Every structure is written in structure tokens, then in C-alpha cells.
User: What shape does this take?
Amino acid sequence: METSATIKGQIVIPSSVRRKFGIKEGTRIQIEVDELTHRIILTPITREYVHSLRGKYKGRGLLKALLAEKKREREL
Assistant: This one.
């Protein structure tokens, strides 16, 4: 499958791919760049994707770290 970029850098994701991954208007897309392979990886942030992350970082103190970071940002 192939698409082209507009002058603004926008691309169109084909409808068959949007249906397959549940991408609808307003769906947020995570963009990752793999420098080694020169690839751009697009991951739709859908309800199913968020649910798949449940428990993945359990017990790692991420919430405390996030709250501390937010507190530091407010102090600046």
C-alpha cells in the first residue's frame, strides 16, 4: 500500500487500514521513529490499545514519579 504526502506533510491512511485498526475521526496516533531502520511507526491510541497496556507497568511507581514531575513543572 502506498500514499503520498501533501505540501503540509499530511498523509491519508487508506480506509481499509482505518477500519482494520478502528481509526475514526479524532483518534490520536502515536508516532515513533526507528533511526536504525529509517521507519516511521504509527500506532492508533484506541480504547483497545489502552486496555492492552493495563498491568504492564504495575508496581513500578510510575504514578508517584509522574506526580513528582508535574509538581516540579508547576514550581518553575
User: Anything to note?
Assistant: The beta strands are 28-34, 39-45. The chain has a mean pLDDT of 86.
